[in-house]
Design a protein that fits this description.
single chain, mainly alpha, transmembrane, membrane
Length: 106
């Protein structure tokens, strides 16, 4: 579980750092060629690249998650038992409610 949280925190940090760094680089003319752009073009290009950078980080995070083995994570047995009981109670309640509704219609 610690590995999953570690990957999530790193991906979250990159989702904040990359767009801010791109916007900062464009606004303070740190990137070559950004001084020749009009303010309107500079805003559009920096915003577009910031959004693209976040999407790239998300794609990498999804790829890392898909590469993890599925049998590595086992659900808690107590949680599964409680969930099954809850679902069975709900389905029993729904069928008895349907029977009551049918009797009312007759």
């Amino acid at each position: 579980m610690a590995g999953v949280m570690h990957k999530f925190l790193i991906a979250s940090m990159f989702m904040w750092i990359l767009p801010v760094a791109i916007l900062y680089g464009f606004n303070y003319n740190l990137l070559p060629g950004s001084t020749t752009l009009s303010p309107h073009s500079l805003t559009l290009l920096s915003g577009f690249l910031a959004v693209v950078s976040v999407n790239i980080v998300i794609v990498f995070y999804i790829c890392m998650a898909l590469k993890e083995p599925a049998d590595k994570h086992k659900p808690d047995a107590a949680f599964l038992a409680e969930a099954k009981d809850s679902v069975s109670k709900l389905t029993k309640g729904a069928t008895s409610g349907d029977d009551h509704a049918l009797k009312k219609q007759e």
